[in-house]
Amino acid sequence: MTDYQTIIDTIGAQCRQSKDRGKVANYIPELAKVSDSKFGIHLVDSNKNNYYTGHSDEAFSIQSISKVLSLALAFTLVDNAILNRVDVEPSGDPFNHLSLLEFENGIPRNPLINAGAIVVADILVTELQDPKRDFLQFVRDLTNDQTIDFDKKVARSEKKTGFKNYAAANLLKSYGNLKNDVETVLDFYFHQCSIAMDCAQLTKAFFIFMNRGVCQRNKTYLTLGQVKRINAIMLTCGFYDEAGEFAFEVGLPGKSGVGGGIVALLPGKYCVAVWSPGLNAKGNSKLGMEALEKLTTESHQSIF
Ligand code: DON
After folding, report:
1. Which of 7, 69, 72, 79 is the most buried (most CB within 10 A)?
2. Which tens digits make up the pLDDT trace of 159-193?
3. Is 64-194 the same fold as 4-61+196-299?
4. Whole-model pTM?
């Protein structure tokens, strides 16, 4: 049996000593307040054994990691109808780029870049009775933790500086690919991104993608087809213009956020979350990526 705890302890010790920790995101001012010395890992295996180290139980802003959860909820509500409005191809562009959106007539390349996630947010705003409340409840139920909440300061902070997301939403609207008004959809989007969770909670939420759609409490949320599709989208699009590098170095489907979190999973085996707020030039957690490369290399386990 793989000794995950020893592997994680070793990775934690190495990463904590690292001098080059990347740069904490500052385009959302509230995120810039987080110390780059934070580092945590939590891994849960398919038998629900937990292994962890460092600041794994300290909540942080999940940001774009939320895009996988909103996509999953949208799949449960409208299934493949999502694909009429969003494509599933890697963009090869940074998460907030707009040029392809105009070039491709308002159909975002995939649901994990900002424009695609804003279309998914629009679907949820249409389909849910009380969108923010119902999305938060979905995350709380997946995790079996009713304490998870929005960080309203972070949501407000992003709203003040979210000019590119306003541009994306307006562009989508001009192409007829946003049904609700820009303000309502972005209010939902900024809140979904602001959710604060720790590494342990993230592995609980992402357990369904590792475990054929079934959560830790044995409730089925997604069909096998939906799980296959969401994991494929994570593998090919989860790290924007660094998706190739992540597949090459780590070899797992996963998703990053500018709060410095990364969640990744090996289907049928384990789900792992890492948090280190310093980002690399592509906006992904620098030590988070390095830690996951070490994990798959040391454990000799990846999807390949
Ligand atoms: O829309 C934004 O810019 C942020 N709320 C989320 C960006 C993000 O996390 C990109 N991930 N690496």
Report:
1. 69
2. 999 999 999 999 999 999 999 999 999 999 999 99
3. yes
4. 0.98
Contacts of 26 (CB under 8 A, 6+ apart): 32
Q: Does domain 64-194 have CATH number 3.40.710.10?
A: yes
Rounded alpha-carbon distances, angstroms, from residue 103 to 46, 97, 172: 43, 12, 12
Matching residue, tokens 């249409």: 126
Instruction: Give the Å distance between the CA of 265 and the centre of ligand 1.
Output: 20
Q: Is 189 a catalytic residue?
A: yes
The alpha carbon of 133 and the centre of ligand 1 are apart by a number of angstroms equal to 21
- Is 64 noted as a catalytic residue in this protein? yes
Quote the ipTM score: 0.98
Kindly report, residue by residue over 59-114, the tens digit of the pLDDT.
999 999 999 999 999 999 999 999 999 999 998 888 888 989 999 999 999 999 99
**Neighbouring-strand partners of residue 274:** 41, 262
The CATH code of domain 4-61+196-299 reads 3.40.710.10
> What atom of ligand 1 comes closest to residue 190's alpha carbon?
5
In contact, 56 and 40? CB cutoff 8 Å: yes
- Domain boundaries defined on the chain: 4-61+196-299, 64-194
Between the CA of 166 and the centroid of ligand 1 the distance, in Å, is 13
Give the CA diameter of the chain.
55
Tokens of 104: 């491709």
**Marked catalytic residue, from 4, 51, 52, 189:** 189
